[in-house]
Amino acid sequence: MIFSFRNSGFRDPETGVYNQTYFLEVFNREWHRHLREKEQLTLVFLRPHLHETYHHPGLLESLTNNIEKCLLRATDMIARLDDDLFAIGLFNISDHGIEIVVERIEQCMDTFVQEYERDHSFSLGYKIAAVGCRPTREKSLETLFEKVDQLSDELEHNANQHLLSSM
Hints:
Elements: E1 18-19, H1 20-37, E2 41-52, H2 59-70, E3 77-82, E4 85-91, H3 95-116, E5 122-133, H4 141-156, E6 162-166
Parallel strand pairs: 1-3, 5-6
Antiparallel strand pairs: 2-4, 2-5, 3-4
């Protein structure tokens, strides 16, 4: 029997991306590595607003596959945290790099919408919140997650598609 990493315990069964437990484990490890090496990392929350008239099997998996392809660096990772929330970890990245990756994700989302817009039984919008951080002893991982969550909540109440910040 051949073992498939695609269906293992660290993947979300519906989308195929990493699950919350695995993402938090890796992000915690990367936080401590970036603390030692004095490098910047970024936490991105992506909230796709998928409204379906009827269920499209595999639609969410197709969407996340497209997003994964946009993350060109092997170290970047995406995970499903909740039904409508994905986290993306960007490691060893500059502020300019964050902007480039967020733009790339937006382009992938827009391309996905254009490819599937012929099917009028669903609509897709999205919001992207990102916070770059250079870990220090005074900053905590929990604070980073709280800041991105707060930024993501702010986005839900304004017209912007994305917000970038740092801490």
